[in-house]
Amino acid sequence: LNRRWGACAQLCAARVAELRAAGETDATLRYYLRSDKPAGTPNRRRWYHVEVRRGKRGGGEIEDPSRRLDF
After folding, report:
1. For the chain, what percent of residues have pLDDT higher than 90?
2. Residue 38 φ then ψ, to 5°
3. What is the side-by-side strand order in the sheet with 46-53?
4. How far apart are CA 54 and CA 26, in angstroms?
5. 40 DSSP assignment
6. Are the CB atoms for 59 and 34 separated by under 8 Å?
7. What does DSSP say about strands 28-35 and 46-53: parallel, antiparallel, or unpaired?
8. What is the pLDDT of residues 16-49, one digit of tens each?
9. Residue 65, exposed/middle/buried by CB under 10 A (0-12, 13-18, 19+)?
C-alpha cells in the first residue's frame, strides 16, 4: 500500500484483514473470472478479479480497493 499500487488480490486480502481486526468478522473475498472467448476455444484469455464483500456491519457492500487508490 505504501507503494501506491498492488494487485487486486493482495489489496483485498489486506482490506479484509483490516475489517476483521475491526470486528467485522464476516467480511470475505469475492472473486470472478472473465474471458474473451467461450470455454474450450484456443487462445482464450482470462482475467481474474477480486473484490471485498463487507459483512453485516458493513451492509453487505462490495468494495474494490484497486479502484480506490489515488494516483
Report:
1. 42
2. -65, 155
3. 28-35, 46-53, 62-63
4. 7
5. T
6. no
7. antiparallel
8. 999 999 999 999 999 988 899 888 888 999 888 9
9. buried
